[in-house]
Task: structure prediction
Amino acid sequence: MASTPPVGPLVRIFIEPTLIGTLLNWGLFGIIGVQACIYFSREYQDTIWLRSMVFFVLVIDVIQTVFHTHAMWFAMIENWGDPSRLTFLPWSAYPTPIFSSIVSVVVQIFFARRIFSVGKGLFIRSISIFIVLVAVVQGTAGMVVGIQWRTLGVIRVTHLKSLPIVWMVGAAVCDIAIATTMSYILASAKSPFMFAQTRAMVDRLITQVIQSGAITAILATIELILFLVKPDEYMYMAL
Result:
């Protein structure tokens, strides 16, 4: 009677970061779900396209979370102990880079449009155009990585050096540019003639913009460093 294959180092190296990434995805999904409920329960005077964009991002996040969970079930339950099954994961694992790229491009272009609308001067508007261009490039690179992931398999995806680097660097550059430019625009809008409550509100907006932009930029930078320094340990997949 044949014994069950032992769980090799490859299984642990791959399963640990993907499990952490799936748990983080569920945590962030809960935050986004609460924010979406608050947004749609209140009567904001937003345009239909903006509300549609929020709904679209929410739907993509739901689908991505379901796909993440299915992929982890496949690896940790259905085929646990069989390292050969890690060479090619189920269909649900491969669209992850594509979904992430779509969401990032939509959100970054949205902020670039806001910067173009409220910003004054050629320099600020040039930055918004730069953000759009970089967002499209990094999003396209991420989608190609997802397609190549399906072809090569997750174990050999580290052979794609240039595309993942373009994807991760582009995402970090966009997030930093958005946070910096939005903070500059809000800071420029402050006036000594403002009411104290208005100045406090602007300060809170600047803090929120910096925090949200810094978090995404730092995570993208950490992901890039892990991919470059230890590509064979797959820790970058946790982010």
